[in-house]
Amino acid sequence: MRVLKALLRRLTGGDLRALRSEVAEMRAAVERIDALVQQMNHELHAAAEEGPPLSIGLAERVRLDAETALASVRVIDRQLRRLGLDADGDPT
Question: Is the distance from CB of 85 to CB of 92 less than 8 angstroms?
Answer without folding.
Answer: yes
